[in-house]
Amino acid sequence: MKKAYKNPDAVTYYIKEREYFGWRPRGERAVKFAEIKPGDYVLDLCCGPGMVSKVIREFVGDKGKVIGIDISPKFIKYANQLCNYPNVSFFKGNVENFDTYTHAEKFDAIVLLASWYWIKNKDQLLKKIKLNLKPNGRLLISLSADNLKNPQTHQFFLHYRNNLKRVISETFPDIDPSYLDCLTTANEEYFDEIISQVCHEGYRLCSKNETKRQLTLADKLFTYENPARTEWVGNFSSKVRYQIIKDALTKTGSELKNLQTIERHTYYLEFCTCTDS
Ligand SMILES: C[S@@+](CC[C@H](N)C(=O)[O-])C[C@H]1O[C@@H](n2cnc3c(N)ncnc32)[C@H](O)[C@@H]1O
After folding, report:
1. Residue partners of 210: CB distance under 8 A and separation at least 6
2. Total of domains in the chain
């Protein structure tokens, strides 16, 4: 299993980030896009600090049920304090074995938000989810990235990647930073591949909703205080990584003087199982 969220600093920064950007609308979007109704039973996989679970609980009410599972004990402790209701339970564990905690419970909705990347055996998890959904149950997966369909953000992306390469080779002359060109780019093709992978396991895409938000360069730098965000830069200590990002963002900002914000988008992919119609 990838280990970044076992780092207590990553947990602290994640909570700080959710508070900074506001977490309630995030939960409301989960409710809306997973079509959650009062009384529903909902499983929140990789629930993190339980903020989304809390909004879901408020929506499903006393007759519903929410179970959240996360690998990080620190997140589970926080979630238990934030969302303390008799019909909500949090478990510390690997979501790839979620049925160990949920036993034979069947769910109206299972959500996996901002966590696809962390799942090691995705096909096996998708099979398990399918077995644990009620007949008209939904699986909601959310995936976020800088929106490369937005011309300004695409231009930012190209400059920023070049500047990362430049900063890395200036700081570490022995490192060839061309590996940055080979990293997965979260473009439309990448999202389509994920949809195909899920559908291959017997799901049907029921809805695909896209939400957008604008980030300043300062907002973006703030998100990189979280040591779990390793995707872009390579294998450096979190302090060095943060400095590389800061220098590359500063260079990019001075090159693109008219750049106000970068667009970040999130896809909410709602899947149903193929057996229902
Ligand atoms: C980016 S956070 C998302 C948290 C939450 N879903 C949200 O949207 O706010 C990713 C979460 O996945 C959890 N995680 C990663 N791999 C996991 C695994 N195999 N089992 C359980 N939790 C895992 C991390 O601890 C972290 O809380």
Report:
1. 265, 266, 267, 268
2. 2
